[in-house]
What we know:
This protein is an all-alpha fold. Helix content is 79%, strand content 2%. Helix 2 crosses helix 5.
Amino acid sequence: xxxxxxxxxxxxxxxLQSRPNLYAPIHKALRLMMCETLVEVGQxxxxxxxxxxxxxxxxxxxxxxxxxHVGHENDHIHPAIEAVTVGGSQRVANDHVExxxxxAMLSDELEALAExxxxxxxxxxxxxxxxxxxxxxxxxxxxxxxxxxxxxxGYDDQGLHAIHDRxxxxxxxxxxxxxVHWMLRAASAAERSAMLLDMQQGMPREAFAQVLRMIRPxxxxxxxxxxxxxxxxxxxxxxxxx
Length: 242
């Protein structure tokens, strides 16, 4: 492969340009989910039962998403890396063990807080969650640099797409819809349009309409109008080409 390599940061970390990035969309989604949830926990009003239940549900959803994400990477990405670079995924695999332990600890603290909404316990939980988020931010950077370098060195684009497709096929529909929600919200306008154009081609009409209904409330008017124009133009061009 003749893709240019741009060294950044720590030794051994690289970013290669114009290659399929298996990590970027879901990592953007997780970063957004982590940031919004952490802020919500920091603003938690323990005296408002409805708001408290909503915040705790958001944390449960985040922990479930992180737990599932670790499993998907362990099952699909790490074996692909090990197949071309033995030991290449070991550092991140060790991180994953620690992350699962942290998720279990946070889950226990969360349920204790739900049972006894104590202000000191709530602040301690906020601090523990903030540490978990910070560690995950560093962890995801390693994956998007060092791990991507190994994947790009070991696989052509077709091989990377095959890994991605196998991973997607393993995700249950409900989890997939939740992931799509956060990925579309976290994406740039260009990335969001590209993702939705792919979905428009590959999904039943009603399922795609559901995705649009899910994402539109989170878009500014100009963004929504631009997206509608892009999707309509693509549909028109496809009808004319048929």
